[in-house]
Design brief:
alpha/beta
Length: 626
């Protein structure tokens, strides 16, 4: 990028003025308070949208009595000529010259869009320009006073790895969540683990075999009559309970084919209720609009009545200002007000119609919500009934199986049932039979308990297998996130090394040219952009250097970073010889001349010695009167 012209309008101390720029060195020369720093600020503001001094609002750099200020730059980029304008009111415009005419390429007020456009088209970024291209008064001392964390953030922004840092932070957050989930799953696994020594299956088989022997013995003792009578009675009671539950289920399902049909209806109603969300707010807005229109109509009616009374008054003068009335004009005003009132009345009718529709829809939604609550209660009742029916059917199947094993059909008549009961009652009771019956009941209870424990154990085993699968997945995720974090850290380290190492070499080359420190080695990565110096093999603190040494080191540091990170093609130094003695001024002039061999350089100064040393430079002479 090569700067050709600075254009200012109500910017700083300038009302409207252009300043031509040339290749090589541009010296902005003049006394204090003549506007030198304003030109530097104008270049920086046009490119970045921010004043060159941090924490200063953009509106502070406009002229004192103007509403806003505008700074513009004309420059050449890739043999194309552009004109860039930026206002303190956030207005931005980019023009391009084609066939001798200027055409608007971009015109916007959105800050993020503007900065993205400049970055994509010209590679312009605020932090990079501030640290590598511009030098303002007092900047070096502010930089050295920064905290390491702040310099680290500047470094990351310059190297383009701030987004990598954001990605790493997200990986770290995800890893933290994954570890928390892993701990939760491990606790769940521990709660589900059980001893494999509880061999319920073998115990169940043993009890079932023993129960058959006891029932056989009991049947031999009683002729099976009492056992069969007991089973038939239980069978009949279970059938009665099952019939009652089935009837209750049918009554609850009234109007629906099955529970799936009921759930479909619930889903339909929920969708309708969700679509009707916001009706209350819309209805309130309509009520407010109707009230507002009513007030407007009432006001218009009052105005029309007042105007008509003025026309009907034979006096022909306004009772307030006593000026003569033009009846035609007043009549025309009345007609306009009546037309406006008719329009408002039509709008009012539409709003009232919409209000009635919204009210009706709201009432329908409330009815749907009540219907949904009823269906939800029915669903809960049906789910409970299904569980109870399934339990009864299982118990009925067990009794039927036992009866079939004894050769008794479940369709046995009530007469055979009664005969079996009488036959059982005719058998005299004795101690052996009672003991057998007690043992059978005891074994049945044990068997039922073992089967319940086995079902619980199987369910727990199934859940444990699912949790183990989840644990494996979380472990894989955690490992992937660990690898991702390590990869991002490695990438960041590599980027720093690949970019800062060439910057160190360029910095050493510039310092050797000036022969300022002797044999100097600098580590830019140490303490994040706060250079670590070794001068003639001895460690030396940067803070103990003289003011002029710090300035030269800082300028070389800027130029080195600019070469590695990419320079727009120019440097802007605001009074770089301030507080330098005569010998160091000569050294600074030589430094600027060397830099101008490859770049356009803009320098401000009020020192005649600098002006003489930069003889032949393009001079922009400033004065307080201008």
């Amino acid at each position: 990028m090569r700067l050709e012209r600075i254009r200012l309008k109500t910017f700083g101390c300038f009302q409207q003025q252009d300043f031509e720029m040339s290749d090589g060195i541009n010296l902005i020369f003049g006394p204090n308070f003549s506007g030198k720093s304003t030109l530097v600020n104008a270049i920086f503001f046009t490119l970045t949208g921010k004043p060159i001094v941090p924490r200063v609002d953009a509106t502070a750099i406009k002229s004192a009595k103007s509403y806003s200020g505008t700074a513009g730059l004309q420059f050449v980029e890739n043999d194309e000529r552009y004109m860039l304008f930026r206002g303190t009111g956030k207005r931005f415009q980019l023009r391009q010259e084609k066939n001798g005419e200027w055409h608007i390429v971009f015109d916007d007020k959105r800050v993020t869009v503007v900065e993205a456009t400049l970055k994509d088209k010209f590679g312009i970024m605020h932090d990079r320009l501030a640290l590598t291209t511009f030098l303002r008064e007092g900047e070096i001392f502010e930089f050295l006073a920064r905290q390491p964390a702040t310099r680290r953030d500047v470094l990351f922004a310059l190297l383009g790895i701030d987004r990598l840092i954001e990605v790493r932070e997200r990986f770290i957050d995800a890893r933290r969540l994954a570890k928390r989930e892993r701990n939760r799953i491990q606790a769940h696994q521990n709660s589900l683990r059980f001893s494999a020594q509880n061999e319920h299956k073998k115990e169940i088989e043993r009890i079932e075999a023993k129960l058959k022997e006891l029932e056989r013995a009991y049947g031999t003792e009683t002729g099976d009559a009492e056992l069969i009578a007991e089973w038939k009675q239980s069978h009949r009671q279970t059938q009665t309970q099952l019939h009652a539950l089935t009837q209750d289920q049918t009554e609850t399902l009234s109007g629906f084919n099955n529970i799936s049909h009921l759930r479909e209806m619930m889903t339909t109603i929920e969708t309708a209720v969700k679509e009707a969300t916001g009706l209350e707010k819309e209805r309130e807005e309509l009520i407010q609009k109707i009230g507002s229109i009513d007030s407007q109509i009432a006001a218009l009616t009052k105005v029309c009545d007042t105007l008509r009374s003025l026309i009907e008054n034979n006096d022909g003068h306004c009772p307030t200002c006593h000026q003569k009335l033009e009846q035609e004009i007043v009549q025309k005003i009345i007609e306009e007000k009546e037309t406006e009132k008719l329009q408002l009345s039509a709008e009012l009718d539409n709003h009232k119609k919409s209000l009635a529709e919204k009210t009706e829809s709201l009432e329908s939604r409330q009815e749907l919500e009540q219907r949904l609550q009823t269906l939800q209660a029915k669903t809960t009742r049906l789910e409970q009934l299904e569980q109870d029916i399934e339990k009864m059917r299982t118990e009925l199947d067990t009794l039927t199986t036992r009866l079939n094993e004894k050769g008794v059909s479940e369709e046995a008549t009530d007469e055979s049932f009664n005969n079996d009961v009488q036959s059982a009652e005719s058998i005299p009771e004795n101690l052996d039979k009672r003991q057998l019956k007690e043992r059978i009941d005891s074994e049945r209870k044990k068997l039922e308990k073992l089967k319940q424990e086995e079902a619980v154990q199987l369910d727990r085993l199934e859940r444990l297998q699912k949790v183990n699968a989840e644990a494996e997945q979380v472990e894989r995720t955690t490992l992937s996130l660990e690898l991702a974090c390590a990869g991002v850290d490695k990438t960041i380290e590599t980027l720093q090394r690949q970019i800062l190492k060439p910057a160190e070499e360029e910095l050493h080359r510039r310092l050797e040219q000036m022969e300022l420190f002797g044999r100097t080695r600098i580590d830019l990565q140490k303490q994040h952009l706060l250079p670590s110096l070794k001068i003639d093999g001895v460690d030396r603190s940067l803070m103990l250097l003289s003011g002029s040494e710090k300035m030269f080191l800082y300028l070389c540091f800027k130029v080195a970073l600019a070469k590695v990170l990419g320079n727009p093609g120019f440097f802007v130094f605001d009074d770089p010889t301030l507080h330098l003695d005569d010998e160091r001024k000569v050294l600074m002039v030589d430094f600027i001349r060397q830099l101008a061999e490859d770049h356009q350089v803009v320098v401000t100064s009020y020192d005649e010695e600098v002006r003489a040393g930069l003889e032949g430079a393009h001079l922009i002479e400033m004065s307080r009167e201008s």
